[in-house]
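Before surveying the methods themselves, it helps to consider a single example record, giving the amino acid sequence and C-alpha cells:
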Amino acid sequence: MTEPILKETVDEHGVMTLTLNHVPTRNALTGNGLAEALLDAFARIETTPEIKVLVLTAQGKVFSSGGSFNEMARQIKPEVQSTALRQEYRHGIQRLPLALYQLEIPTIAAVNGLAIGAGCDLACMCDIRIAAQTASFAESFVKVGIIPGDGGAWFLPRIIGMARAVEMSMTGEPVDASTALAWGLVSQVVPDTHLMDTALGLAHKMTNTSSDVIRMTKRLLREGQHASLANLLELSAAYQAIAHKTPEHAAIVNAFMARKSQKK
C-alpha cells in the first residue's frame, strides 16, 4: 500500500502532527500534490475545534527542498506564458502562506533537516520553529535565478531583521542550526533524536488552557504587528469579555478563591 504524501495524526491532547512524506522529491512543495494536501488539512483544522496546536515536520533528512525542478523545467518552456505562470502562483503555492498564517491555532515547525527555498519559507510561515542540530535553512531562490515567490520576502525580515534577511536572500547561502538560533530564526536547537519530543512537549503546554483563549491570544499577537495601540486595545477588550465567561477561567478563579478561603 502506498503511503500518503502527507501523514496526519492527532493525539489525545488535541495536537495534530502533519508530516511531509514525499522522499523521492525531498518533500518538494510543487508538482506532487503536497501543497494541495496541506491546504486540505488546514481547512479541516479551521473547522475542528478539538485540534488545538499544529506541529509540522517531515520524513527523511530534508524538511523540504522547496520548488520542484521538474516544474521549473515545464515553466521555462516557450508555450507557457508569463500571465499563466502568475495565475499559477496566485492560485497555487501562494495559497499556502495565506492559509497557514491565518490559522487560529499555534503552529510549530519541527525542522528535521534542510529547509531550502520555499521549504525555508514554509518553516517561516509557522509561529515557532524548533530545529534539529543537523537542520539548515537556505533562502536559495537566487541560486536558481528566481525570486522568493511564496511570501518569504514578507516573513523572513519580520523574523530575523532586514539586514540578515537581505544576506540570506541575496547570497542564497545556507544558515546552520546554531546560526539560526543566534539570529532568532529558530527558538530552540535540539539533538535530532529529541526533535519531536521537544516539539510535542511544547505543543502540550499550549493545550492546558481554553482553546478559545489560545486562538484569541494568537489573533491579538497577529493584529498587534500592524494595528494601532488604540485599535488593538479595543479588540483586546472585546476578546477579554469573552475570555471572562469561559468555563476554564471560571474553574481557575473558583479554585483560587477556595484555596484562599481555606487559609483563613
